[in-house]
Every structure is written in structure tokens, then in C-alpha cells.
Design brief:
This protein is of the alpha/beta class. It has 20 helices and twelve strands.
């Protein structure tokens, strides 16, 4: 069997790290099995779905290195959903209901007040043809519900009906269909909610595994029943834990929390984000993994925790720095060029340990080639002025820093921080930075002299 997975976002906003975590789980699962990855846009909500959001989602996935084998749009497949709906109607499994949202809310509140589960009472099934005609004459339009198979012939006498499956993340799972309301599949305006299109697409596209968030666990029981009603087998499911913010708040596309685009624009490496998104909330240690193939080797759905996983952007800093510190010059060469840094490998190897992000190289390039203005402490002014006279003659090499500071130590008696820090500050404007032994030759003799007071 060929493993086929799908990532089905709604193009109604920018995806956040929680959405992309699901995409990464599916991509890595497919890669590990030599399977296929389908990007399928759930764009049946015509008012909220936008082409620019779909384009942004593809851009975000490409940033991670996710290259779909197939791209589909549900708005192109409405005829298939119409055919499935017609079959369910003909089989008596899709029935019209006319309650308004307010009426349904009142019924649910009444049920809770009486200590009952707020499950839909199948009032739509009780309506006669005359009653339906009367409601439609009032201007009401029906929404359509799927009749769950949780009864023995009398839909008003439900019985416990268990749907059980082995979940890739959660192990054995059971949902009682008698505890659920018949799901609405078609809205009053005739548009489809995600459930039916998703199932029809999974059948038509031969999706073998559905990996998604744990907020869909209960939906799996409903979807099992619809798969069966359409004469198809249900895929294998895996429901992973959800990411929250560091404060425990759920992520939302509408709020823009931790959007992939904002993380990318901040200069973070895609593999820093992917490493944290995939490994956090699992029993594995969170570490910076340099490419998706290596992350696929570590990826294991069985290690996913049952509890929610907090995603703290602050954790990205260390992961990102570790990746940058290990980056060879050929990997960053073109990126440095785009930043206006026309440098050789020696520059990158000297400064990369001090870069949290590749863009930080601009700062050190400015130190090497720009003007440094630093306020010299009164107690250090005489020392740095004197330092000018002890700068060794000739080209600045890796030995210059040691020779220079040794001569100054012998002349002034300064040592340790009192010896090195004033020189670093006047030459770089920094208290910390690259090893001065290696950095000094990049600055060059003329810049050194220009920065030392006379």
C-alpha cells in the first residue's frame, strides 16, 4: 500500500506554527514511508477563502522544504460532493432541519439545565411534508444533517454505538455515537461544511493516513459512519496533541499568533522552527536538526504526548543559534551577498559563533568596514591613547593581538578585563564579540588607527 497523506488548511488566514506542525507531521510521515503528500485547500467557504492566503500557505510550506506531490482545491470538486450528498439523501441518511441558531441554543441550554447532554433531538426527522412546506413558505431554508447509525431502526431510540480505532498517537480510541449530535453537512445556503468534502476527497484521493490535531478525535467517530455510508473504508488516523502559546492560550489564524510568515520575516531558520514544532510535546529531546531528512529519521508519532505542548518562541533563539553556528560558508554565501556582505569564508567562520541569526552578520560587517563611535571611559582614555604607540608594525595578523596586549600589559601593568575590554570597546563598539585574535585582521591596520585616539 502506498502511504498517501494530506494537509487540508482553510485559506482564510495565515497559518501559524500549530497548523504547520500538522503539515510537518504529515510530510515527515510520508517521507519516512516513501509516500505522497497532498496539499488540499478547504476553500468551500467562499466569503472567507482568499487566493492570497492560499499562496501564502504554499510559500510557508516551501520555506520548510515541503513540496506537495499534488495540490487540490475543494472549490473545484463541488460536483463530487453533490453526488455524495445525493446518495446520502436517497438512502435516507441526510435529512433537512429548519431550526435557527437561536432555537438550537435554547434547546441546548434547556437540556443542560435538566442535566441531559445537549444532543440534537432529531426534530427535523419528525416534520411532515406539510410542516416542511410551511416552514419554507416562511422563508426558512434547511440545513442538512447526517443520521448517525446509533439506533436499531427507530432513530428516536438511540443506543450506545461504539466506534473504535487504533490511533497512531493515542493508541486505542473509542467514541460513542449515541453521545453525539447528528452532524450538519450542508448549510442553509447550500454550501458544505468541511466534513463531507473531506471524506469524499479522502476516498477519491486514496488517502491512507489522516494525521491531525486531537480536537478532531470525536469527529472521527462521525466520519467513520459517513465513510461506511459511502461504501468506503476509513483511513488510519493519528491525532496529535495541540500547541499552545507559552501562556497556554490556543493558537488562532485570526489572531495571527506565531504565524509562520512572521517567524520567517524575523530571520529565523526554517529548521529551527521545524525542529521545535515537531519535537516539542514528544518524549524526545528538543534539539536543532539541520534538515528535514534527519528530522524524518527522528520523527515518531508514538512519542507524542497526550497533553498539550507549549510553544515558546524564546526556545527558538538557542535552536536557531546552534544551526547558524554550524553553517558552512557555502550554505550562507548567497544570503550574505543579498545582505550586501561581500566577504570570504574567513569572515563567516570568525563571526558565525556570535550570530544568533544569519542577518546578524550585517552588524559585524559594519564593524569591520564602518565607522565606530564609542564613548571611552575617563579612566581608560590615557590607556587607549597609549595603545596606539604599541600597535605592532606591519600587516595585522593572528599574532598581532597577542603581541600588542602583551606589550601594553608590560608597559601599563593592566591585565585581564582592564587590559582587553577598553581595546575591544574602542575597536568594535562592543563588550562581547568574536575572538579579537581572529577579528583584528579583518578590521585592518588603518581602521584600528582611525579608531584609536591620538
Amino acid at each position: 500500500m502506498t502511504v498517501i497523506v494530506r494537509f487540508a488548511p482553510s485559506p482564510t488566514g495565515h497559518i501559524h506554527i500549530g497548523n504547520s506542525r500538522t503539515a510537518l507531521f504529515n510530510w515527515l510521515f510520508a517521507q519516512k514511508a516513501g509516500g505522497r503528500f497532498i496539499l488540499r485547500f478547504d476553500d468551500t467557504d467562499k466569503e472567507r477563502s482568499k487566493a492570497e492566503f492560499a499562496d501564502a500557505i504554499e510559500t510557508d510550506l516551501a520555506w520548510f522544504g515541503i513540496e506537495p506531490d499534488q495540490v487540490e482545491r475543494q472549490s473545484d470538486r463541488v460536483a463530487s460532493y453533490d453526488a455524495a450528498a445525493a446518495k446520502l439523501k436517497a438512502d435516507g441518511l441526510l435529512y433537512p432541519c429548519y431550526e435557527t441558531s437561536e432555537e438550537l441554543d435554547r434547546r441546548r441550554s434547556r437540556a443542560r439545565a435538566l442535566g441531559r447532554a445537549p444532543v440534537y433531538d432529531r426534530g427535523g426527522l419528525k416534520l411532515t411534508d406539510e410542516e416542511r412546506a410551511s416552514l419554507e413558505a416562511e422563508g426558512r431554508k434547511p440545513h442538512w444533517r447526517f443520521l448517525l447509525p446509533n439506533h436499531d431502526g427507530d432513530p428516536f431510540q438511540t443506543r450506545r454505538t461504539e466506534v473504535t480505532w487504533t490511533d497512531l498517537c493515542r493508541g486505542e480510541q473509542t467514541v460513542d455515537l449515541a453521545s453525539l449530535s447528528d452532524p450538519v453537512l450542508i448549510r442553509e445556503d447550500g454550501s458544505y461544511l468541511y466534513t463531507l468534502p473531506s471524506i469524499v476527497d479522502d476516498i477519491d484521493m486514496a488517502v491512507s493516513h489522516v494525521i491531525r490535531g486531537e480536537d478532531h478525535v470525536a469527529n472521527t467517530g462521525v466520519q467513520y459512519a459517513i465513510f461506511k455510508a459511502l461504501g468506503a473504508d476509513m483511513p488510519t488516523f493519528g491525532h496529535h496533541n495541540l500547541l499552545t502559546t507559552s501562556d497556554g492560550e490556543g493558537l488562532s489564524k485570526r489572531k495571527g499568533a506565531l504565524s509562520v510568515g512572521s517567524l520567517r520575516e524575523s530571520g529565523l531558520e526554517p529548521m529551527a522552527v521545524a525542529s521545535l514544532a515537531v519535537l516539542t510535546g514528544t518524549s524526545q529531546s528538543v534539539e536543532a536538526v539541520s534538515d528535514l531528512s534527519l528530522l524524518a529519521d527522528k520523527f515518531d508519532l508514538s512519542t507524542v504526548s497526550r497533553s498539550a505542548a507549549k510553544f515558546d518562541p524564546a526556545d527558538l533563539d538557542n535552536l536557531n543559534a546552534k544551526l547558524v553556528h554550524a553553517m558552512p560558508f557555502d550554505v550562507v554565501y548567497e544570503r550574505l551577498q543579498k545582505l550586501g556582505i561581500v566577504a570570504g569564508e574567513d569572515f563567516w567562520l570568525i563571526i558565525r559563533e556570535n550570530c544568533q541569526k544569519v542577518i546578524d552578520a550585517q552588524h559585524y560587517w559594519q564593524i569591520v568596514h564602518g565607522v565606530i563611535k564609542t564613548k571611552i571611559a575617563d579612566e581608560d582614555l590615557e590607556f587607549v591613547t597609549q595603545a596606539r604607540k604599541f600597535l605592532p608594525e606591519g600587516d595585522v595578523t593572528a599574532e598581532t593581538w597577542g603581541s600588542w596586549t602583551s606589550a601594553l600589559k608590560a608597559e601599563t601593568g593592566r591585565k585581564g578585563r582592564g587590559l582587553f575590554m577598553p581595546l575591544r570597546r574602542v575597536l568594535t563598539g562592543l563588550d562581547h564579540g568574536p575572538d579579537m585574535k581572529a577579528f583584528l585582521p579583518l578590521i585592518g591596520r588603518q581602521n584600528i588607527l582611525d579608531r584609536l585616539p591620538e
